[in-house]
Design a protein that fits this description.
By secondary structure, the chain is α/β, with parallel strands linked by helices. It contains 8 helices and 17 strands. It has a 7-stranded mixed beta sheet, sandwiched between helices. Strands 1-5-6-4-3-2 form a 6-stranded mixed beta sheet, with no helix packed on it. The longest helix is centred in the first third of the chain and has 18 residues.
Length: 367
């Protein structure tokens, strides 16, 4: 069956960005597909309960399909959704987040708001990481390989990065294989996130959410260098920021001192360790804000539950780990109020979101 080609209709998109089709009752997850495509699909792998495939030829294109901007698209692993109209991308991110909350989080009817689109779906990244492979090529790895796909122009990178790369490729290539190359549009490191415009939207969303929940004494886990913290200084009585990266904490502490924010307390420690200490000291917080890495916050969830804040704000870059963590929080007595996806990474399947929970039942906290 591997290597065989079949005419299939793509039914929808799944977490991870692939299209879903069915063949003789078996789910087939298809790279390069758009929902509604009728396409020739080559089977690439067989598993016990599903198969994998790739679009060979689009027979009848979906209305959601468009022509990719980048000639390296489909080979380069930097983007996965350039073949989808941008309006379709943001709509599917809302649908996929909701489905993950239902399937993994066991939420019956989660409130997932429409995705906030990016002001520009192109040239938005202020920072990219490229690889130099064993052949000396510089680019993003082809999906599932260690082969770098080279390009003349990256359509999702800030134009200043493209200028830097064009000027420095020869030097980078000579510098050695296997190196990771990081390029930044701001030589002083002024951008805190890879998408500055959407980061500003994220900061505003968090400010509005914390204000709506009453602020108070806040614990911020995985706080980085204070990307969100300083925007909350005026609407909270105190904030304790927790982060394991020492350089980020030093930068946050210096900013707090320079700005005159004595009620911002930044500490370099792991979230679960701080929570364990807080429980022993019976330290209380009105709310907990967390922005964990892609793996989620499983190690911190028991401590959050023990701390019993009135509200929780969870910023996530992975719907699956978010849903897993929400399932535990809801089992402990929290009510899911809403999840707001924000498109931090256009042209890719990655989904950023902000979720709010409140302690108690839905009846206790009517909308």
């Amino acid at each position: 069956m591997v290597g065989s080609v079949h005419a299939l209709t793509i039914l929808d998109l799944i977490a991870g960005g692939r299209g879903r089709a069915e063949l003789n009752g078996v789910q087939v997850f298809v790279d390069g597909a758009a929902p509604g495509d009728h396409a020739q699909v080559r089977i690439t792998k067989q598993h016990a309960h599903y198969w994998e495939g790739v679009v060979e030829t689009v027979l009848t294109p979906s209305s959601e399909r468009t022509v990719p901007q980048c000639p390296a698209f489909g080979r380069c692993g930097g983007c996965q959704w350039q073949h989808l109209r941008y309006e379709a991308q943001v709509a599917w991110k809302q649908r996929i987040l909701a489905e993950q909350l239902r399937w993994i989080g066991k939420l019956r009817d989660p409130v997932v708001l429409p995705t906030i689109p990016a002001p520009s779906p192109w040239h938005y990244r202020s920072r990219i990481k490229l690889q130099i492979d064993d052949a000396g090529r510089i680019g993003f790895f082809r999906a599932g390989t260690y082969e770098a796909v080279e390009f003349e122009h990256c359509w999702i990178a800030d134009e200043r990065i493209n200028t830097q790369l064009a000027a420095n490729k020869a030097t980078l290539r000579a510098s050695g294989r296997g190196r990771l190359v990081q390029s930044d549009a701001d030589a002083d490191g002024g951008f805190a996130q890879v998408n500055p415009a959407q980061n500003a939207q994220l900061q505003q969303l968090v400010v509005e959410g914390v204000r709506a929940h009453g602020g108070g004494r806040v614990l911020e886990l995985y706080c980085g260098n204070g990307n969100l913290t300083f925007f909350l200084a005026g609407i909270t009585t105190a904030i304790v920021g927790i982060e394991t990266h020492a350089a980020s904490i030093r930068q946050a502490q210096q900013q707090a001192a320079a700005r005159g924010h004595p009620h911002l307390d930044f500490r370099c420690t792991a979230a679960h360790r701080f929570l364990r200490h807080a429980a022993k000291q019976a330290t209380r917080f009105d709310g907990i804000l967390l922005d964990p890495p892609r793996r989620g916050a499983a190690e911190a969830i028991p401590g959050i539950i023990a701390c019993a804040p009135r509200w929780i704000g969870y910023i996530s870059c992975d719907p699956a780990t978010l849903a897993r963590d929400l399932r535990a929080l809801i089992a402990a007595g929290y009510h899911h109020e809403s999840s707001q996806p924000i498109d931090m990474f256009p042209q890719t399947f990655h989904i950023e979101s902000v979720t709010w929970l409140r302690l108690g039942t839905q009846a206790d906290h009517p909308a």
